[in-house]
């Protein structure tokens, strides 16, 4: 019997590397002959995991975490036709059947067949269908022919694995935020949040031809990281309105497009930066986006937040100034990023050196036993994207 180890959520603030079951081609009673078993080559820690680990969701103790997975196929189910043992593949964090009406139109983030509780599923995530997470040595990936992106050349892929590992989530997610905000050549963009998703979004805005990308956060190291690849920054600890800080950069107090890469754990601006104001970013982006502009919202908002300050927020009701957005005819785009819509194109952008995404988000590779430390450092606001290398396969 093969061994497996994975990162499990224990209680708020605590994760542990545990011995876990070796994956089967099944989820409970549900047979997954359409699935494969992967030996995991790289698996990243995400801000989305942090919401659970901070105790801000209803995640149960013992949940094996990890939805950002890249791996080597070591076993394929009876019904897998095109993916082969030995393929090196990127796994979209969304689990999708490829057969339902949403999958058929590319809306793989809200697949109807992979989660009995609601549309949409992911590995190792609360309310996302119970699929086992991949911050581990091995994992099962269902509907493998549909979900997996095979890298064309394994040696070339291993040489760029620090970049390619970001295709499972944050690079497509940041890019999707930019696309849905209408970013294109010459755009002036505000990106809220300089975590890995915000930084991936800012780099994507450059790839899409934006003229000016302004990134806002309250962590100086993260803002420094944004400046390292050509972004302008605003420090939200300052008691100067965001619109004024934007005017100081581009001459006018507004932008063409804005992207919320923060989500419901947002903190207030200026003197409020120490406390949480879950609707701050949504209201700020409506304030600074020009009339007729679009707003991408990859930042996560939840339907249940046990740690929220008031009863409304506990069930995801926030005080949003929708009248302002309505008056300015804003478009809003929410939800999981449908990774598959973008991952092949973004893989090519990496392989043909059109973007240095690992450098933009400052990838740091760690061993599996260092994962709990990675979670702690990330929670403290390290300007890094932690990538776990469970088998010591990533070259220096
Ligand atoms: N939609 C999707 O498919 C998808 C995929 C991946 C991640 N996410 C979500 O994207 C968000 C960002 O992920 P991450 O990994 O970068 O997380 P992160 O926690 O590392 O980054 C969030 C950043 O926002 C900053 N921040 C807090 N309040 C702010 C404010 N008012 N204005 C500007 N910045 C503020 C924080 O200081 C932090 O640096 C999370 O909510 C995550 O769950 C969504
Ligand atoms: Zn993620
Ligand atoms: Zn589906």
TrEMBL record:
Superkingdom of the source species: Bacteria
Domain Alcohol dehydrogenase-like C-terminal: 196-263
Record bears the keyword ATP-binding: no
Native source species: Larkinella arboricola
Domain Alcohol dehydrogenase-like N-terminal, chain residue ranges per copy: 34-152
Matching Pfam families: ADH_N, ADH_zinc_N
A GO molecular function held by the record: zinc ion binding
Gene3D superfamilies the UniProt entry points to: Medium-chain alcohol dehydrogenases, catalytic domain, NAD(P)-binding Rossmann-like Domain
Keywords of this entry: Metal-binding, NAD, Oxidoreductase, Zinc
Family indicated by similarity: Belongs to the zinc-containing alcohol dehydrogenase family.
InterPro entries, sorted: ADH-like_C, ADH-like_N, ADH_Zn_CS, GroES-like_sf, HCHO_DH_non_GSH, NAD(P)-bd_dom_sf
Database matches in NCBIfam families: fdhA_non_GSH
Needed co-factor(s): Zn(2+)
PROSITE patterns linked: ADH_ZINC (PS00059)
Identification of the protein by name: Glutathione-independent formaldehyde dehydrogenase
């Amino acid at each position: 019997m093969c061994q497996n180890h994975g990162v499990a959520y224990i209680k708020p603030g605590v994760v542990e590397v545990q011995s876990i079951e070796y994956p089967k081609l099944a989820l409970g009673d549900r047979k997954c002959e359409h699935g494969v078993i992967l030996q995991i080559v790289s698996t990243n820690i995400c801000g989305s995991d942090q919401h659970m680990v901070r105790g801000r969701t209803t995640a149960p103790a013992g949940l094996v975490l990890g939805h950002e997975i890249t791996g080597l196929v070591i076993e394929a189910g009876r019904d897998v036709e095109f993916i082969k043992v030995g393929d090196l593949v990127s796994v979209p964090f969304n689990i999708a059947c490829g057969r339902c009406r949403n999958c058929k139109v590319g809306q793989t983030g809200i697949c109807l067949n992979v989660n009995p509780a609601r549309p949409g599923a992911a590995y190792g995530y609360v309310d996302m269908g119970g699929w086992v997470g991949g911050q581990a040595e091995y994992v099962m990936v269902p509907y493998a022919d549909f979900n997996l992106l095979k890298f064309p050349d394994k040696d070339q892929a291993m040489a760029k694995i620090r970049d390619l590992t970001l295709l499972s989530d944050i690079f497509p997610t940041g890019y999707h935020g930019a696309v849905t905000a209408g970013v294109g050549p010459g755009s002036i963009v505000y990106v809220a949040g300089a975590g890995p998703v915000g930084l991936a979004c800012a780099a994507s805005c450059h790839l899409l031809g934006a003229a000016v990308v302004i990134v806002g956060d309250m962590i100086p190291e993260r803002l420094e990281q944004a400046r390292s690849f050509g972004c302008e920054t605003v420090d939200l600890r300052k008691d100067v309105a965001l619109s004024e800080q934007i005017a100081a950069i581009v001459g006018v107090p507004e932008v063409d497009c804005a992207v919320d890469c923060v989500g419901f754990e947002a903190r207030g601006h200026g003197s409020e930066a120490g406390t949480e104001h879950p609707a701050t970013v949504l209201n700020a982006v409506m304030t600074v986006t020009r009339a007729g502009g679009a707003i991408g919202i990859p930042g996560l908002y939840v339907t249940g937040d046990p740690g929220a300050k008031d009863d409304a927020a506990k069930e995801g009701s926030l005080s949003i100034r929708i009248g302002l957005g309505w008056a300015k005819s804003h478009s809003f785009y929410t939800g999981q990023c449908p990774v598959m819509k973008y991952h092949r194109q973004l893989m090519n952008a990496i392989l043909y050196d059109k973007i240095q995404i690992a450098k933009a988000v400052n990838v740091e590779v760690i061993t599996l036993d260092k994962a709990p430390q990675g979670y702690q450092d990330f929670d403290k606001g390290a300007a890094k994207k932690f990538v776990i290398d469970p088998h010591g396969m990533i070259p220096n």
